[in-house]
Amino acid sequence: MKQMSSIRFWFIQTFLMMAFISSLVLFIGMQIYLYIEPHSGLTTKMTFWLWLYCFIILASAGLYFGLRGSYLIKGRLGDILLFVTTLRRGKFSERIITYEKDEIGLISEELNQLSEHFQEQVQSLQRLAEEKTELSQTARAAAIMEERQRLARDLHDVVSQQLFALSMMSSASLRLFEQNPEKAKQQLEQISEIAVKAQGEMRALLLHLRPVQLSGESLCDGIVKLIQELKQKTSLNFEASVDEIENLSKAGEEHIFRIVQEALSNILRHADASKVKLVLSEEDRYIHLFIGDNGKGFNIHNERMASYGLKTMRERCEQIGGTYNIRSKEKEGTYIDIRIPAMRREE
Questions:
Q1: Of 36, 69, 89, at which residue does a domain stop?
Q2: What confidence tens digit (pLDDT) does each residue in 149-198 have?
Q3: CA 114 to CA 94: how far, in whole Å?
Q4: For residue 269, what is the DSSP state?
């Protein structure tokens, strides 16, 4: 309101200044006239009072028109200010009424168009949010279906066949137990090996069923809990060094956790390893993840040996701008090195 009042003072000051300058010009003109016509009958006193009278009239007129003009301008600018405040509060359906086609009227019309544009943008954002929700639900349903199909395929291809083999071999062992105990013992040893493999497959599949999100935990806490759980349920020995990565973005935390989860699942299913080394650290704004095992290894150039899990880890690493390197040699284990830029939450 102080700015609105300053406009009124500016108007009054301008009109009073015009009145003063006009009266001053009139006074100078009178003095010049007296100098040119000294016998005109006008005295200096008369010219002074005449000038004072004219000055009072001009000042009164200037004050009146200054107040009147500033009142009109202030009222119209006040309407615009009130309308802008209404827009700031989100009431984009409001419109300002314009009567004049001058500059202030043009500003009012532009503000009305701006309000209409804001209203259209809000409606567009609401439609986009609704479409995004629908797409998110569709994508979630598709991901759940794909994961179910993959788990069903893995269960059928590996665990189901192993259980069928256990059933057949156990039945044969029962028949051979009295006739040929030595051969029955050999089959029981094979049954034990197959059971251990099936158990590893089931643990790996159960590891996949863990939630992707960290449920509010930090990345360090989530990985440590995962390792502790595997220590209790498997015979793997872990050599782990997991540093706390502060202020890491949510997407980065979830992708790194999922990569660790996938790598440990592959070790359980394929490596036949007894020892796993896991290192997570940060240096020079890069996150370094190393996962190695002493398992049987494989030929990384053989496409048939490149599992779905390895491809998934590479894709997740690339999605957050990281580099993925894998080294493996038969009977010497597998080693995964990952470097990821440490993008912070505020970035």
A1: 89
A2: 666 666 655 566 666 677 777 777 777 777 777 777 777 777 777 776 66
A3: 11
A4: I
Question: Residue 308: how many CA atoms within 13 Å on its side-chain side?
Answer: 9
In a domain, 139, yes or no: no
Backbone φ and ψ of 240, nearest 5°: -120, 140
Q: Are 32 and 75 in contact (CB under 8 A)?
A: no
Q: Which two tokens mark 181?
A: 């105990």
Residue 314: CB atoms within 10 Å: 19
* C-alpha span between 337 and 169 (Å, rounded): 41
59, 89, 119 - which closes a domain: 89
Find all residues with CB under 8 Å of 144, minimum gap 6, and list them.
none
Instruction: Decide if 254 is inside a domain.
Output: yes
Quote the Cα angle for 43-47-51, to 5°. 170
CATH number of the domain that residue 316 is part of:
3.30.565.10
Render 88-104 in DSSP notation, one character per residue. Answer: HTT-TT--------SHH
Count of the separate structural domains present in the chain: 2
Domain range for residue 293? 213-347
Question: What number of other Cβ atoms are within 10 A of residue 334's Cβ?
Answer: 24
Q: Token pair for residue 336? A: 């995964």
Is 155 within the bounds of a domain? no
pLDDT, greater one: 327 or 302: 327
